[in-house]
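TA notes, week 10

Several of you asked for a full example with nothing omitted. So below is the full record: structure tokens for the whole chain, then the designed sequence directly under it. When grading your own attempts, check the secondary structure regions first.
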């Protein structure tokens, strides 16, 4: 019985000795993924406006 108590005491002492450390935790920066867009996305609206203006000029 004494050996069991001694083993439990040593196990408890050993587990608390390694419970923590003084180093700061390493926190990784979050990964930011930007979606790529085609270059034709920005020119679509001006082309539609140009077609509308050309149609208005041709109609008058």
């Amino acid at each position: 019985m004494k050996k069991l108590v001694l083993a439990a005491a040593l196990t408890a002492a050993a587990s608390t000795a390694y419970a923590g450390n003084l180093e700061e935790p390493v926190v990784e920066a979050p990964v930011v993924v930007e979606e790529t867009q085609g270059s034709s996305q920005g020119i679509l609206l001006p082309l539609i406006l140009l077609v509308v203006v050309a149609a208005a000029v041709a109609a008058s």
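The CA atoms of residues 10 and 16 lie 10 Å apart. Use that as a sanity check on your answer.
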